[in-house]
Each structure stands twice: as structure tokens, then as C-alpha cells.
Amino acid sequence: MELSLVQRLLLIGILISEIWTQERPGPMSLECLGNLLRITLSAEYFEDKYLSLSVVDQSGIAWELDEVMASQCGYTVTYSNWSNIEFRASALSCHSHLEKDVFIVTIQIKASHTPDMKNATTHLKSASCHYGPWSPRELVCESNYMEVSVRREVPQTVKDFIQDEPEDWTLAFPEAKAGEASIWQIVFHQPEEKKALLVSDAWSAGYGLNTTDTRVLLRIPYTAAQIQLVEDQGITFSAVRSSTFYKQRWMILMVDTAVACPVDGVDYTNNTIIWTVPKYIQLLSAGATSFKDVLVEAGVDLHKLSAKEMASRKYVLSNDLNAITMKIPIGAEGGYYKTSVSSGQHGAKYTINLFLEHQWEDNKRGLTKHTIIKEIETPFEQVELAITNNSNLSARLMNVTVGTFLPDVELVNLTIEGATVAVPEAVQHGYLIYEIRYANGSKAYVIQVPLDAPSVKKEYMRADMRAYTLNVMLAFITHPTSETFTVPVIIVSAVKDAVLPSARGFCDGRNLHLIITHGNVDQNWLPFISDWHLTPEAAQKYNYSLRDNGTHLAISVPFLSSHVNYEDFHTSGIKASLHLTLKDGITLANRGDFSISCRFSPSELIQCLPNGTVVITAVKLVGFADLDTSLLVLRDRRCKPSLVTEKTATFKFNVNTCGTSRKFNSTTMRYENDVLYFRPGNDTPVYQLKFVCWYAIKQTVNVQYESKKNPPPSIKPGFGSLALSLKLFKEKSYSEPYQESEYPVVKYLREALYFEAELLQPKDVRLELNLDDCWATNSQSQDSLPQWPILINGCENSEDSYRTVLHKVNYSLRVKLPQHLKRFEVRMFTFVQGTTLLQEQLYFHCSVVICSTVQQPSGFLCPRRCNPGKHRLDRSAESHLHGQVSSGAVLVRKENN
């Protein structure tokens, strides 16, 4: 393959030493191959160096090579065997020195580690080769030029010869062009015209001309303007038909300098290269009538092969009447594979550098020697690269072998998680990369990465298995063509090291708590309740608690919330559960399910407020999937929930409404109602939640509930208390009571005391407060002695000279329920012991009866007036609620000074 010549050449580092079976001496080696000299520069020696090549003439001047000079002067620079540089020089090259049958070529090579060629090392190599005898006409087809040399039949022009008049040329040969001091001219025969060039013009056009004592030479680059493409026996030739004229004394001599080189003629059939070259090309044999083959030889790399050697390599050389054919099995000895890239795909081409030498005689020109150098390259063939997983999972090490590759391939970088990393820097990312060399020169690359490297993806598979995925892109370059390609490496290894998340849960009085302990597989798992993604924002919206400290995920959800399931009711409480699912953050596949179930007190569902307001929350059980909580009602179906969620309905109402029933006993008052659900068109409820509120004087009844078999569920939770007060007012208007800070209150003889007894809670219009007995003591204890009666069975004390006065209570802005209040007035003359007025602290007490203002099942109503003959513990009293109330201390004084 021809090398594009530049003034600086870089040999990229491919270790060639292992390719060769024997060591080459020094940086250069040379061979004389007929009329060509070959010098090979060792890639191993010149590795990673910038090169400059020059040819040194006989005067010691170095002429630096470039592409134009090389093709004009008979030099070729190419690569052989992947990366060795091969320099070839024609025996009649510009600066060679020819003495008899020996030609001498001197080259200069400068090598530097920098492109500016500073501190360059200079190598000078001179070689001499013997070549002979010369044929009358010799044709050479090189890779970058065509060359024809013809024997001169007359003596060389005498030195300082002065040409005749210019018209002598044109009179003798009209196609020749006259010119001053011009002895040599070239005429190119083209289909449309003949074009004559002086030697100087031809040289400027890129043609090479040379002459020796015995020969005339014309060298034509393949890029020359006068080249024609002609076809002979179906094979295309690059050809130039030309005549070279020169004047010798009184003679004008003409030399036929036509030349033709095959362009194609290569076919690929049945894994075989077939190269066909026609014999006796018409352009080269014009005017001849008889032909005779003298010699047909072929070889590889300019080395001729014997018939035995060809047979051992399975080459076939056939010489037919009109053509010479070579058949080479693809992959045979003598050629080599080199890496090729097509559309980014890795592949290979088989390359072999053939040459053919054909000698023939004809009856016009005598012996012709035609040497054709032909580098043949097969079409691109994609090559799949083996990627072998040799991971050592027990050592937690991924080990991948990529290849094999030909020696002309080099790994230059990796793409890891989108970042391009040069091979030397890969170790910083946890990648160890090294190269394996094989005996035949091929190689492979080994990549080692720890399983715990950040770029190795970890993914949970099942049970205790995790998948470790190495996904890296390798970028390669070929030498010397600098083609690039990439190889994706995706390796998946399954390892039994998965630690799944675990959970524990607990409940307090109002919340369910789940604490998830993270494993090593759930870093990207997401918490879901049902199909609802529990994000921090969503948790805040529902007043849930969601915390993650990296090792634990803690979730707290209130007992009464949309995402809690209510499973059943029992005497031990209400069973509620919270179900949490962890899902894959990419596929949303279920990865783990956790739940916590607890029993909660029924008191969480009901509030019996002191003002007679009841707040009851009904919950939807798991078994009632079709229950619409917005359709739940109380006994009075007009009473509907004030707050509805998917699973709960909250009612808020007064005990006087919504069909609430009431019962009394000696210490408590009981309110009952039901939350009901009816299916459309059916008057039998399918859901019943029974609840009860108890109100007791000076005590609180603990929550109780029970379930009914039909219809389920049925509960009766609730508690409450009766609130009573006995206040002392400053005036008969009962507008301003004494405050707690004003006790004890000082009162004087004959001064009135104004008392008011009140039922503070519940605010039930059907209840009435009645006074039973009222009395005074000189201590806080209601049972202490002595006692001074004030009211007896709700009537004034008839034995007291200053009777207690009962005052009527009317509706006012302050008094919304007059039946809940009783007022009476006491004179200070009342409190004497014998004839002595008490002058000490007094405490006032009353026993009260709370009863109904409407008909009760027992048939007894509240007493409407004083009943002197009524006994305190008669049967009717059993149906009422009794309580006692006391006031603060009052200091009695004899005189008001």
C-alpha cells in the first residue's frame, strides 16, 4: 500500500518485534531486487518518531522527498507488514549514480520525537546494486509511476554540441517542436492531437526524463495529464503513447517511449484472487507482426518464486496464448491480513504484493521486459470480535477479554458513563487494562473492573441475586491508516449477594409506624401505598411523616387517613393496617411488600363534647368495597356526614338532633345513635355503627364498645361528663358573679347572698335542673356538722325566720337555656347558733336533680314546684340524675363599719 508522503512521518507504536521470527539487524535493511533497490525501516526502531526522508545526490546535496518528487524521480514509499516503512528506488532514479551495471543510491533519514524535528538523529545509508544485462526496452509498473527505458543505438551527443537551425526539426518531423537550444523533445500521441513538449516543459509538468550513455528513460506519474485509459482484452490500462526525439550531429533520432500498466484485471471468486494480464498489448507492440515469449516469472514482494514454491503455497501461474493469469488463495502465505473499517464496523482485508515479469521478442523492437508490481487488496469483510467473560465473582472482579485483533490495532480510549477516558487514565476509574500478545503477532485486550466500581451497574434480580452490568465503549485506531472503530462491551454477571430491605412496625395511640431498613438493592426503589407514590411532598400534603437517613426509611401515618385499611371490629378494638410496596424506580415492578396491623381504641372514632356535641367517624371496612361513604346517614337520614374521604365519614351533631335517644340512671345519662348504610331500594342497613355517649356527674366513664352480629359492624363507644356550678353573685340582677380570686367573700348581718346553680354541660334543651336540698357548713366538706338547712326538698326552710327566696330565671343574652339554672336568695340572719351569730367562714352546698322535660318511658316527669311531702329516695328519683355542687367560702361579720 502506497504511503502518502509528507515532510514529517509518524510511526505509531505497534510492537513489531514479536511478528518476525528473527531479529533484523539495526534500524534498516536493504535488498537489491533487479532494477530496484529496497530499503526497509524497522517500525520497532522508529516507533513513535517523526521521520524525514531525503535522497542524497553525487554532490552530497540532500533532496527531501515529497509525493511529486517521488513519482517523478522513481522513488516509492509504502508500508509493508502492518507498519514497517519500505523505500524503493529505481536503478535510473533521479539521484542514483550508474557506473556500468552498478547503480548506487544514498538516502538520509532524520528521526525526532517532536514534529519540529529538533534534536533529530540522522541516519545515512548508501547502497549499490548490480543490474544487467539491460533489455532493449524495459517497462516498469510501480505503484506510483510508470517507467520506460529504451536502448540508445547511437553514440551520446558530443559535449557543447550546438543544434542546427530550428527549421531543420520541423522540415524533417512536423510533429516535433522547434525551440532554442533544445536537443530533446517529447511528442505525446493522443486521439485528438499530438502534443510536443520540450524537456524543460515536460519536467515542469511532472514527467521524469533521464539519459545514460546507452539508454533513454521516460517516467510518468499516474496523475499526468497525457495519460489515457485504454482497454485490451477487457482489461483497463493506464497508458501513454509517446515518442522522444533527440538530435545527434546531422541526424534526428526518434525513440518509441510508449508505456502501459494494468489498472484492473483482478477478480475474486471462490475465495481466490484471480489476476489477469493480457500479453502483447497493442499499444506496446504497434507495427510488430510476430511475437515470442522468452520468460514469464512471478513472485511476492519482488521475490521470484519457483514453480515448487508456488505449488507449496497453492499459487497457480498460467501462461495462455493471449494472457497471463495468477490465482492466489485468499489468506495464502506471502500476503497478510490488515485491519479495515467500513461504516464504523471492524473488519479485515487480505493484502498481497504480487509482481509479474514478462519478457517477449517481436520482429520490430526485439526483446521487451515488462515488470508489473501489483498490490492487491481484497474487499472489506466484517470480522466479529469475541468478547469473553472471565469474571472471578468470588474475588468480586469482572474480567473481560476483547479480541483477537491484528497487530495494527491499538486501544486508545474508553467511554465510561458518557465520559471519554484515555487508556492510561482508566485506572483512576477502577479499570485495569493490559494487552496479551500471541505467537502469530495477533493480540487481545483484557479489562478488569471491581464489582463495586461506580460505573458497574447493580440491579436486583430475584431472591438473593443481583445483576452486575459492565457497559463500556472501547475506541480503537488502526495503523498506519488511522481508521477508527468502536466496540461496545456489555457484560452481565449474576452474584448471590443481594440484601433485601427489612421492616419493623409499631403503633402508638394515633399512628401506624413502619421503619424500613435498607438493603443493598433498593437504592432506586420507590415507596408506594396502593398505587400512590409516597414522595416527601405527597406525605406533607396528607400530614404523613416520611424520613430517610440513608440507612432507614421511616413512615408514620395517622390512624384515620385515606391510605389505612380497616379490617374488623372486636371488643379489643378496631383493627387497622398500613400496606407499603417498594417498586423499581425504572420499571415500577413490585420489589417488596410490607405491612403493619394494630388495634386501636374505639375512642379514636368518637368525641362526646361537654356542650352536647358529638363527633363520630365511621370507617369503611375492607369487606365493603362498594360502600360509598358519602351515603352514610344517622338514624335521621337527613343527617349526613360533614366530612367524607374514600374510607371515612365524619358526622358532627348535637345530642338533641338526628334521632339520638337518651336514657338515665342514678349516676349517668346515656345518648345513643347509629351510623347506617342502605343500598338503593333496600330499607335494611348493610352497615351499622352504634355509638353511645355517657354523661356522669363528676366522673368520666371509660370508652366501651361491643359488636353486633347482624348487621356488622356495630359499636357503641363514647364518654362525657355533667358539668354543674354554684356561683355567688354581687347583686340581685345576677349580672356579675364573684370571681375565684375574690373568695372568701365578706358579708355582714342582714346582707343578702344571691346564689345561682347551673347545669353547664350538656346543652340539652330536654333537660331541666331542679334544686333538692341546700345547706351551709363551716367547712368545705358537704357532710360536716353543724349544718344549716336553706332549702329542703326544693322548698324554703320553714323553721328559718328569714326564709330563703327563690327567683325566677328568664331568657337573656347570657341565659340561653333558663331550665338549666335555679336562683335563690339567703339572708345572713339565718346563720346563728342559739342566740349567737356565726362569725366565721361558711360554705354553701346544694344537691340537684337533672331530669327530663318530656315524657319518659317510666312515666315520671321533672317536678315543677316545691314538693314538701316528697321523699328524696322515692321511685321517681331513680329515673333522674342526681348531683351535688358547692360554692366558695363566705366570711360572716356582725357589723359593716
What features would you describe in this structure?
Mean pLDDT is 83; it is low at 1-25, 155-182, 698-719 and 869-878. Strands 11, 12, 15, 16, 24, 25, 28, 29, 30 and 31 form a ten-stranded mixed sheet that branches. A seven-stranded mixed sheet has the order 54-55-56-57-59-64-63, with no helix packed on it. Strands 1, 4, 5, 8, 9 and 10 form a six-stranded antiparallel sheet that branches. A hairpin with a 3-residue loop joins strand 26 (316-319) and strand 27 (323-329). With 897 residues, the chain is mainly beta. The chain is rod-shaped and about 185 Å long. The N and C termini lie far apart (138 Å). It is built from five helices and 68 strands. 4% of the residues lie in helices and 50% in strands.
Condensed summary:
The chain is mainly beta.
Features:
68 strands, about 900 residues, ten-stranded mixed sheet, mainly beta, disordered N terminus, rod-shaped, about 50% strand
SSE order and pairing:
Layout: E1 9-10, E2 28-33, E3 36-41, E4 50-56, E5 62-64, H1 67-73, E6 75-80, E7 84-90, E8 97-99, E9 102-112, E10 121-130, E11 137-141, E12 145-151, H2 166-172, E13 184-189, E14 194-198, H3 199-204, E15 208-211, E16 215-221, E17 228-232, E18 235-240, E19 242-248, E20 251-256, E21 259-262, E22 266-269, E23 272-278, E24 291-300, E25 303-304, H4 307-312, E26 316-319, E27 323-329, E28 336-342, E29 345-362, E30 366-377, E31 381-382, E32 387-389, E33 397-405, E34 409-416, E35 419-422, E36 432-437, E37 443-450, E38 457-462, E39 465-478, E40 484-495, E41 502-507, E42 511-517, E43 525-529, E44 532-533, H5 536-541, E45 545-548, E46 552-558, E47 565-570, E48 573-584, E49 590-600, E50 606-608, E51 613-619, E52 643-644, E53 648-654, E54 661-664, E55 668-677, E56 687-697, E57 720-729, E58 745-748, E59 752-761, E60 767-777, E61 787-792, E62 795-796, E63 805-807, E64 821-827, E65 832-833, E66 836-837, E67 841-852, E68 881-893
Parallel strand pairs: 11-30, 56-57, 58-68
Antiparallel strand pairs: 1-4, 2-3, 3-7, 4-5, 4-9, 6-7, 8-9, 9-10, 11-12, 12-16, 13-14, 13-19, 15-16, 17-18, 18-21, 19-20, 22-23, 23-27, 24-25, 24-29, 26-27, 28-29, 29-30, 29-31, 32-33, 33-37, 34-35, 34-39, 36-37, 38-39, 39-40, 41-42, 42-46, 43-44, 43-48, 45-46, 47-48, 48-49, 50-51, 51-53, ...
